[in-house]
Amino acid sequence: MITAKEAITQAMNTLNPTKEHTIDQERNRRRIDALNEKWDTICPPLYQETDVDLVDIKKQEAVFMWNPSDKKNLWIKGPSGTQKTRLAFLRLRQLHYSGWGCFAVNVVELANSLAIADGSERDEKIEKLSKYAVLLLDDMGKEPNTQQVTSSLYLLAEKRLANKRVTIITSNFQTRAKTNEDTEYPTYRRLKENAIIVEFSK
């Protein structure tokens, strides 16, 4: 089993060449600076400050067992306060520094932006999000349940599947993602049918 700290350390170590290669050192320094700058735009400050040592070790192992190369989504679910989002960003951070093209978005914020976008702008947003190698959709199930939002999210799920891209999803037990009436909700079904489910409890 590998922990978050071990995985992130391994990813960072691959960016550091041996001391005798000065040119490589400078090149990698610029690369690390670029990765750091990009990560600042992906991860909210709250989760950048996560102390790995304070995150439950068994939960770390459960999340870091998931391998995006298997082309399966990772769905992390559980009640509030179970470190779902922190763990998702820790895994995303390790992948980002390992060279994967990553992005993250809060589903409520995404849904609100899709709801007010015109057709071409909405299509452009969906197309862009469909192409990231790994996309984190945080708080799935709290988004407004309107036809425009649900159809847009379904299209995003379909495009990511067609592009063979993997998605990390976090959701709360108390959201629509868990209610019986939405068991057949197409977006959730599409994301779950190709997903490894990791379930946390307090």
N-to-C span: 22 Å
| Number of helices, counting only DSSP H or I runs of 4 residues or more | 9
The strand count comes to: 5
Q: What CATH architecture label applies?
A: 3-Layer(aba) Sandwich
Rg calc: 18 Å
Shape: globular
Mean pLDDT: 86
CATH superfamily: P-loop containing nucleotide triphosphate hydrolases
| Helix content, binned percent | 40-55%
The fraction of residues assigned to DSSP E strands is 5-15%
Oligomeric assembly: single chain
Q: Look at the structure and give the CATH class.
A: Alpha Beta
Poorly predicted regions: 177-181
Q: Looking at CATH, which topology would you report?
A: Rossmann fold
| SSE topology string | HHHHEHEHHEHEHE
| Domain tally | 1
Strand order of the largest sheet: 2-3-4-1-5
Short précis:
By secondary structure, the protein is an alpha/beta fold.
Report on the structure:
- It is globular and about 55 Å long.
- It has one domain: Rossmann fold.
- The protein has helices spanning 4-13, 22-42, 45-48, 57-64, 84-97, 107-116, 119-129, 147-162, 186-192, and strands at residues 73-77, 102-106, 134-138, 166-171, 195-199.
- Helix 8 links the parallel strand 3 (134-138) and strand 4 (166-171).
- 30% of the residues are buried.
- It has a 5-stranded parallel sheet with strand order 2-3-4-1-5.
- Helices cover 50% and strands 13% of the residues.
- The model is unreliable at 177-181 (pLDDT under 50).
- It has 202 residues and is an alpha/beta fold.
